[in-house]
Amino acid sequence: DAMVIQNPRYQVTQFGKPVTLSCSQTLNHNVMYWYQQKSSQAPKLLFHYYDKDFNNEADTPDNFQSRRPNTSFCFLDIRSPGLGDAAMYLCATSLRWLAGTDHYGYTFGSGTRLTVV
Amino acid sequence: SQQGEEDPQALSIQEGENATMNCSYKTSINNLQWYRQNSGRGLVHLILIRSNEREKHSGRLRVTLDTSKKSSSLLITASRAADTASYFCAITQGAQKLVFGQGTRLTINP
User: Fold this and answer.
1) Is B5-109 assigned to CATH 2.170.150.70?
2) Which of B94, A82, A56 lies closest to A66 in space, CA to CA?
């Protein structure tokens, strides 16, 4: 089945130690997103790729970076995780949406829960 | 931010009852979407309603949209224990971006 897969499901990292979360998709969607979701809060968009074009949210900390080497894969790099970065990280994909036309909705992965110790 | 705001934040009902959740937003929209999130999991797209639609059904789900009041509601009829989850409304903001509301945590008691 076509899907969005996030690895690992759970990630424990040390304070300040770089960590990479991965996302892959078999949907051939050209837009990929990374969201951060803290406990009992709304998912917050960090950045998205439209094809290879990277779009960073203004309030995304510099500590967070992303790579999309090809259509299928997207990575979230946290250069120096702090305790406040502990959260669920959600990857999502969608087809390109044109203003004034239907947005078909996102397909989300199951998320990676990051713990910082 | 033009996040959707949801009401109530938490809702607990008995199995078989109907559950209604509301969402308000501040900007003009092209469409509004509802998602479900089971505990500790990703979000699942439930339904999309266009700005020129007033009501939409999908199985036991009924969504209404009132663009004059900038509000939407999600009704789940004949609730089941498996409906226990958090429900989020989301609006499109700018190109390619969805902005989510704070969500309603729904608990269905057997």
Assistant:
1) no
2) A56
Dihedral sign for Cα B35, B7, B90, B65, please: positive
3-class SS of residue B11: strand
In degrees and rounded to multiples of 5, residue B19 shows phi and psi of -120, 130
Residues 23-42 of B with CB under 8 A from A: 30-31, 33, 35, 40-42
Give the torsion sign (CA, B1, B2, B7, B10). Answer: negative
pLDDT interval class at A104 (50, 70, 90): low
Range of the domain at A35: 4-116
Please report, for the domain that includes residue A91, its CATH number: 2.60.40.10
Helix, strand, or coil (residue A86) = coil
Q: What mean pLDDT value characterizes chain B?
A: 90
Would you place residue A97 in the very low, low, confident or very high pLDDT band (cuts 50, 70, 90)?
Answer: low
The answer to whether residue A100 scores a pLDDT higher than 90 is no
Instruction: Record the tokens describing residue A12, joined without a space.
Output: 């424990």
Q: Where are the domains of chain B?
A: 5-109
Q: Do B88 and A43 touch (CB under 8 A)?
A: yes
Closest CA to A55 of A44, A63, A43, A66: A66
Residue B1 has a pLDDT of 43
Name the domain count of chain A. Answer: 1
Measured CB to CB, residues of chain A less than 8 Å from chain B are: 4, 6, 31, 33, 40-43, 45, 48, 50, 55, 88, 90, 92, 94, 96-97, 99-111, 113
